Every structure is written in C-alpha cells, then in structure tokens.
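Please check the following for our workbook:

***
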Amino acid sequence: MNNVGNSRQPLRNPLPRQSVLFLLIAWLSMFVLTSLAMAGGLEDARRRGKLLVGVKPDFPPFGYLDASGSIRGIDIEIARYLAKAVRGDETEALELVPVTSGSRIPFLYSDWIDVIVASMTITEDRRKVLEFSKPYFLSGSLLLVPKDSSVKDTGDLAGKTVAVIEGSIQEKDIVEVAGQAKVIRFSHMPEALRAIREKRVDALCQDDVVVVALARENPDLKTAGKPFDVRPYAIAVKKGDMEFVHWIDAQLDRMKEDGSYEKIIRTYVGESESGLFKP
C-alpha cells in the first residue's frame, strides 16, 4: 500500500528559545545602528551637544593661529556662529578639528567631524561625494612669487616650479593654465611658504585671498598677475544630508541679515577687500 499521501515529513527541530532571542536582539541592534548611521550631521551634533567642525589652522585669513596661539579667521567665526545656533553657547557647543585640504573629506566620512568649514571650493568632482551650502566667499587662484621674481603671470611659468597644497584645487588649475610648469606638492601651507621664501620653488599658487594676505605679511614676496578660475567657497556635509544643508543655508542667510557676515569680512580681509571676490 502506498502511504505517500498519508505520510508526513518530520519537522525540523525549532531554534532554541535563547537563539531566537539572540537573533531578535541582533536584528534590533542592527536596526538601531543603521538608524544612527543614517542620522544627519545636525542631529548628531544636537544629540552630542557639540558641533565638530573641520577647519584649516594654516590658511589665513580663513584660519590661523594668532600671537597667543588662539585660532582665528573667517571660517572660525562662521563655525562659532553655527555652533551657537545648535545650542546657544558657541564656547561649549563647538569643537574645532584641524584638517588639511587632503584630509577634509576623509575626516568627514570617518565621523571625526560633522561639517567642513575649511575654505572648500565647490567643484563637480566634489559634488559627487559632498553636499554644499550656499557660497559664502568667491575666490580665484593667484600666484605668489619672490619680490625679485621675473614671473609676471601664469604665462611665465613654463619650465618653472610651482608649489601647491596637496588636495587643493590649484593642483588642477596649474596643469590647465601652465602645462609646462613643474608642480611641487606640499601637505601644509607653512611648508610651501618656506619653500618659496627659500627660493626652492619659483612660485606658489593658492587662493587669491590667502596669497594677498601672505604677500602683505611677507615683504620679500609679492603677488603676480590676476586671479583666475574664480569659484565659490561653501560649507560641506556628507552626500545626501540635505536637512543639514538647508539648516546651514538658513544660518548663512541670518548672518547676512544681522550684519555678522560683513563684520567678519571687514575684520579679517580689511583693506584688501575691494580687490577680492564675494558672493
């Protein structure tokens, strides 16, 4: 007699209750961690009670150490304004994290900072991995050369050595406008500045506002030519974090409305303001 129709396959042993509980806890933990990972930078800062801001400490007038060793600059003041908007007390709610042009984005995606306020130029390549705020400054590339240099503009750079900061937009700019120049990369601005003062390089290419400040502070150096490839600076957050971007845009609008922005520019740009670019 064929008993197939009446037969039943034996059931598999069910998971022990402890295993089911473990899986449930693991699933819930994964859900919570995923939710936290998806939280935006603004939410992270509010939950932490402190805004972690990546800034450049060697990029005057946007970020630099004064005679007392305190960090100052345009970006620093903007960071303080944002931190105050997060909690109302910028002294307690702000942590400034030193970054370089090359480390800004890795620091952001390593969660060592919530936001980049470090004279970052908007480019299409950077838009692929970052969200940008409204521009808060416009800057072109400009040459810095020794006082006795024969370099008058980018057309004189053929066969010359030009210092740039690694990770900066000038790495690309110099190749495009002076393809026959030899590009020498430095990690930090003080290194590049030392190289040009010691005439180990023929020129330094950097953002115009920085070059003007360096020329003013170093009598043995001067600017050469006019700014080129003018682009905007903006504040940057992780790709997709639109809530944070909208919040930052609102704070930048408020800075302009209440006069804070103009005060910052006058304080740190001063007499050279008329020769520079602003949005």
Notes: Residues 30 and 36 are 10 Å apart (CA to CA). The first strand starts at residue 51 and ends at 55. Residues 1-37 have pLDDT under 50 and may be disordered. The two ends are 91 Å apart (CA to CA).
